[in-house]
What does this fold into?
Amino acid sequence: MKMNRILLSLSALLIMGCANDVKNIETRTQVIETQGKEAKVIETTVTDAPSAKVSIVEAPSIEIIDKPIDFGQERIGMTKKYIKKHYGFEVDNIEIEPKIIVLHWTADMSFDKSFKRLQPQKLFSDRKDIAKASALNVSAHFLVKRDGTIYRLMPENWMARHVIGLNYSAIGVENVGGKGNKKDDLTPAQLKANIALVRYLKEKYPTISHMIGHHEYRKMENTEFWLELDKGYRTKKSDPGDVFMSKVREAVSDLNLSGAGK
Ligand SMILES: [Zn+2]
It folds into this structure.
């Protein structure tokens, strides 16, 4: 029993040792007698144990399933053109430096339908509201199912078309739901998944300083992140709503992410 406990804590310490300064770990080996048999015990002491303990607790546990949308040369080419036309940059690749997380809902209750809207490279013919700006299909980096399963649809640092003016620095998270584009019906499992995803992204990309709901995007027009050159290209959005945003914000308040402002 005692041995089990020692071995368990030892393996935990070894995991920490990978991420922390090895100098902080001291080991001492001794031989003891237990149940009439000799056993070797390696005692490990971490001099700054309290901070090491915290790093284990805070490590985000998250499962992400890759389910790629079609993002071939055609979509990459259209993305480059979009960047040139709307942001004024001539680029060799479509990589972005993530600074903002934008949360959405798909306004559709079906995961399959939501996925199929984002899958093709070219925009659907019923999107007349934004077709003039580009034929590039809309997309997002992540799609969260009603049960909280997180799918990654495209590389996290490629530009997706999901938020006017801010795409060049924004990672998009779509949630299946928002019936009729107005009902605040995202599930507790989706809330939990969004919180985990925001934590995962902030840890991976320390450049992220903002988190907004899509419905708040126009409040970003006077910030350094806003790049849209076409003054007539704007939409009115209601996703994912103030209630959902305030719940996510409360849960990740320790990350000190800024909102969209007033
Ligand atoms: Zn949206």
